[in-house]
Amino acid sequence: MTIKKSLSAALAALALTGGLPAISHADVDDDLDELRGTSAYNEWQLVKNDTRRNIRAWTKHEDGKGVRSFKLDYIVDAPFLTVARVYLDIENYTRWFWTVREARILKKVSPTEFYYYVQHDAPVTLPDRDAVIHVNVEPYNPKKGYGALRLKAAPQFIPPKPPLVRMDAEDMVVKFSPIDKDKVRVEVEGFIDPGGLAPAWAINAVQRQAPYFTVLGLQRMVLLPQYKDGKGPLPFNLIPEE
C-alpha cells in the first residue's frame, strides 16, 4: 500500500470513529506535504472557502512549531448582541464548540477578565485533553469598529487532572466587527497545542477542520430563542452598556 493510501485510510478510520470530520483527498495531500516537509512555511494557505456560508479558513506552518496556526474570517447573520450572548455563555460551549464535553467559569476577575475550564474529546487512541483559558475582553469601540476576546492558555492555574492531558496552548484572538444591525464579521487567529504525545499529522488534520465546524455550530446557536430573544446584561463587558 502506498504512503498516500495508508495515510488516507488512517484518517478515514479516525473520521469514522468520531475523532475527525470527513477527510478529503486535499487534506491527505496536505498531510503528505507535512510528512515530506515540502509545504510552505510562514505563509497562510487557504484550506476552506465556503462561499454559501461566508466562511474562509487558513492554516500556516511557522518556524519552530510542529502544529499549524489557523485563521478564520466569517459572517454571522445575527445582531452583535446575539453573537456575544452565545460566545460568553461558556457553560453551553458543549453544544457547539468542537469536541467540547465540559466548560465552566473558574474565576471572574472583572467585567473584562476571566478564566474558564474546558475539556475536549481527543481522536480515538489518544487521551482526552483539558485546558484553562485566561480571557481578556476588549469592549466594542465604535471608533475602532470592533470588540475582541483575547484568549491564552494558563495550564498552571489549577492542578492537572489525570488521565486528562493539559493543553499547552489554546491561544487566539476573536475579533467582532458589526457590519449592520443584523450581521457581524468575525475574525479569529490562533494556535492550539494539545500537549502530550500525538502525531503531528493527526493534530493538524483536526486543527484544519475543527475551526470550520465550530463556526457552523455558532451559526446554528444564534437562531435559538434563548440568545436571539435574550434579555438582561451580558456576563462580561464585550458590548458596553449604554
UniProtKB/TrEMBL annotation:
Residues 1-26 form the signal peptide. InterPro entries: START-like_dom_sf (IPR023393). This is START domain-containing protein. Gene3D superfamilies: 3.30.530.20. It comes from the Bacteria. Keywords: Signal.
